[in-house]
Design brief:
There is one protein chain. With 201 residues, the chain is an alpha/beta fold. It has a single domain, classed as Class I glutamine amidotransferase (GATase) domain (Rossmann fold, 3-Layer(aba) Sandwich). Helix content is 22%, strand content 29%. It has 4 helices and 13 strands. The strands form 3 sheets. It has an 8-stranded mixed sheet, sandwiched between helices. The radius of gyration is 15 Å and the shape is globular. The relative contact order is 0.18.
Length: 201
């Protein structure tokens, strides 16, 4: 079962529909105690980083416990930002610290927020997330802040600056783009995640 975490900032309906389209069993979870039976978790999100304040100590402990038990985790857009140490958008609010670095506002002579389709530049690291997805595939973005490029970056894209479009370390994935709105390629990402989740405890 994949737990879709409702912390008040997610585009739950479209993510749930996308996961259902690839045959995943999904339950919307609004209390951390209900994560106990999940073999995978999805943290969606749109909007300001302050919205992640709802993911407080109880949520953090529950998510960490499931990760320790071998469950998978996918953060989408704002949910991906929460996987990092934090964001300049709300500097006093800590992220989960599962990936190192701070998310920063997009810069340069560009339109912000970045809304639309951009191509992915896959990194040379092995990636289960992008299995079956060709280099330069386009996916859908909508955001004003972005994560730094780190050794865990699985793909980058460029809008004024180059930033991490996806991160991946073991069973923990993050997507800056919205797979649920990215057509066939996005559904393949969700299918790859569901397949990994099926092998989790």
């Amino acid at each position: 079962m994949i737990a879709l975490i409702d912390y008040g900032a997610g585009n739950l309906a479209s993510v749930r529909k996308g996961l259902a389209a690839v045959g995943a069993s999904v339950v919307v979870v609004r209390e951390p105690g209900l994560l106990a039976s999940a073999n995978a978790m999805v943290i969606p999100g749109v909007g300001h980083f302050e919205a992640t304040a709802t993911l407080d100590g109880a949520w953090r402990r529950a998510i960490a416990a499931r990760l320790d038990a071998g469950a998978a985790l996918l953060g989408i857009c704002l949910g991906m930002h929460w996987l990092f140490d934090g964001s300049d958008e709300a500097p006093d609010l800590a992220g989960a610290g599962l990936f190192t670095g701070l998310c920063t506002r997009l810069a340069g002579p560009i339109k912000v927020p970045h809304v639309g389709w951009n191509s992915l530049a896959l990194t040379d690291r092995s990636s289960q997330m992008f299995d079956g997805i060709a280099p330069d595939t386009s996916v859908y973005f909508t955001h004003a802040f972005a994560a730094p490029i780190t050794p865990e970056t699985a793909a980058t894209t460029t809008h004024g600056v180059t930033f991490a479009a996806a991160v991946e370390r073991g069973r923990v994935w993050g997507a800056q783009f919205h797979p649920e709105k990215s057509g066939t390629a996005g559904l393949r990402v969700l299918s790859n995640f569901a397949a990994m989740a099926a092998g989790a405890r």
